[in-house]
Amino acid sequence: MEYVYASLLLHHAGKEITEDNVKKILSAVGISVDEARVKALVAALKEVDIDEAIKAATIPTVAPVAPATAPAEEKPKEEVKKEEKEEKKEVSEEELAEGLSALFG
Q: Which one of 22, 23, 40, 61 is least enclosed by Cβ atoms within 10 Å?
């Protein structure tokens, strides 16, 4: 993931996404660089228009849940909050996966 982040930083800064530039960013933040992963990333991104991939990435929206007509069993507030947080986390991970998959077509 950090390799993709490095390439996005380079793109945002208007710099060319090269093996050396990706290595510099990763090394600067203390990440040990895997040469094969860097080469694969740079090769994969040569054919990708990152601006178009970002524009094409869709973020699915979650439809609001309608209240139940029959009174449901009441859950303690702590339990409800915990379930809501878990649902939000799942959605955000799915969104992230979809957005990144668009980069690699």
A: 61
